[in-house]
Design brief:
Structural class: alpha/beta
Oligomer: single chain
CATH architecture: Alpha-Beta Complex
Bound molecules: guanosine-5'-triphosphate, magnesium ion
Strand content: 15-25%
Radius of gyration: 16 Å
Number of domains: 1
Number of strands: 9
Order of helices and strands: EEEHEHEHEHEEHEHH
Shape: globular
Largest sheet: 7 strands, mixed
Low-confidence stretches: none
C-alpha cells in the first residue's frame, strides 16, 4: 500500500487561462501537470488525479511513463468546486496520508512536501499558513478524515475551502517554518496566459 500519495486537483475549467485546459497546457516544454507530478515523484509513491471524465485522456497522455503509479478519480458531477474535487480525490487514496496540490503549482517544492508529511504524522493534517491564508490546496491530510470533513461541509452548503479544516485536528505550518523548510514560490499558481509566460521564463532560467 502506498504510504505517501499526491492528489492532484485538475477538475477546474481554466476560465482565466482561455479555451485550453491549463492542466495540460505547455509550460516551458512540458504539460503543466507533468511538471507538478515530476516534482513530486521523489517524495510520493502514488499519484491520484482528480478531473472531469473528458479531461482524462489528455492528462493520461501528459503523465505517460512518470516514475510513480498514477490513477484517476473522476468527478461524479463536474463543476462542484475544488472542495468536491478534493473529497473525490482523497476517497481514492489507499494509504493514510496524502499531499493535496492544485495542478497549477509548477514550482511545488518536494523537500517542503516531505516536511509537510513529517509534520502531519499523528495528526489529521499539516496545513501551511505562509501569510494570512491557509494553503489548503498545498497541504497534507489524513485522507479519510479530510474526505469526510469535505463531504460534511459540502452537505451544509459550505463553499469556503477552509471550512473542513475545523473538523480536523491539524497542525499549522507557519511562516517561520515555511521560510526554514521551503521556498516561497512553492505556493505560486498559474492562472492566466501571462502567468504561464512568466513561469516559463523562470523555469527555463532554472529558478
Ligand atoms: N474537481 C474540481 N476541481 C476544481 C473545480 N474548480 C477548480 N478546481 C481545481 O482547483 C484548483 C484551483 O482552482 P483554480 O485555480 O480556480 O482553477 P480553475 O477553476 O481551473 O481556473 P479558473 O476557471 O480560471 O478559476 C485547480 O487545480 C482546479 O483544477 C471544480 O469545480 N471541480
Ligand atoms: Mg477556479
Amino acid at each position: 500500500m502506498p504510504e505517501r500519495t499526491a492528489v492532484v486537483l485538475a477538475g477546474g475549467r481554466s476560465t482565466r487561462f482561455g479555451d485550453e485546459d491549463k492542466a495540460v497546457a505547455d509550460l516551458a516544454g512540458r504539460p503543466m501537470i507533468r511538471r507538478v507530478v515530476d516534482r513530486l515523484t521523489p517524495v510520493v509513491d502514488a499519484v491520484v488525479v482528480n478531473c472531469r471524465a473528458a479531461q482524462r485522456g489528455a492528462i493520461a497522455t501528459a503523465l505517460d511513463d512518470v516514475a510513480v503509479t498514477v490513477s484517476f478519480a473522476e468527478d461524479d458531477y463536474p463543476d462542484e468546486g475544488p472542495m468536491a474535487g478534493m473529497a473525490t480525490g482523497l476517497r481514492a487514496v489507499e494509504g493514510e496520508y496524502a499531499f493535496v496540490v492544485a495542478c497549477d503549482m509548477p514550482f511545488v517544492d518536494s523537500g517542503f512536501v516531505g516536511y509537510l508529511f513529517d509534520r502531519a504524522a499523528g495528526h489529521d493534517a499539516a496545513v501551511p499558513r505562509p501569510e494570512q491564508w491557509f494553503e489548503t490546496t498545498h497541504a497534507v491530510y489524513r485522507a479519510a478524515a479530510m474526505a469526510e470533513a469535505c463531504e460534511a461541509a459540502l452537505a451544509e452548503g459550505e463553499e469556503r475551502i477552509v471550512a473542513p479544516l475545523f473538523d480536523l485536528e491539524f497542525v499549522v505550518v507557519d511562516a517561520d517554518e515555511v521560510r526554514d523548510h521551503g521556498t516561497p514560490h512553492t505556493f505560486e499558481n498559474c492562472n492566466t496566459p501571462e502567468d504561464f509566460v512568466d513561469a516559463a521564463r523562470r523555469l527555463e532560467e532554472g529558478s
